[in-house]
Amino acid sequence: MPTRTSSFDVPFPFALPIFRIILHGGFLAVAIFFVLSGYVCSMKPLKLSLAGKPEEARRNIASSAFRRVVRLIIPPTLATTISWILANTGAYNMALSLENSWLAAHSHWRSDGFVNAIRDLCQAIVRLSLRRLTVASYLDV
Q1: Which domain holds residue 58?
Q2: Mean pLDDT, to the nearest integer, of 60-87?
Q3: Which whole-number Å values give the CA distances from 25 to 12, 28, 71, 94, in the listed order?
Q4: What DSSP assignment string belongs to 4-44?
């Protein structure tokens, strides 16, 4: 009978290939979250509607939609804006000094001024949008 030398010799159930295929990347967890979230978010409006209070149900849906915008859109927008401001003030210049680094190759080059930075940002957004449209039209064919 072989003796175990460490706790890593014990097989982990979630390391088995079947679990890794199902759980890889978190896609299953995201799908479960969306199903549960949709169920939970729809319960109160459905109960109100079935109770003969459609106006309250509509009000509840509208208030939850506005709260969702505040909770899900404003924080990432602020974080992106702060990161963009930091990039244009030179806060990420250390990455450009690294040799043979992926970070140096993909770091943002500082613009010459605030107006040029806004212009560069708008051009980058347009380029990204056009690239996505091109890829989407290519995939549809």
Answers
A1: 14-140
A2: 85
A3: 18, 8, 24, 31
A4: P-SGGGSPPGGGSHHHHHHHGGGHHHHHHHHHHHHHHHHHH
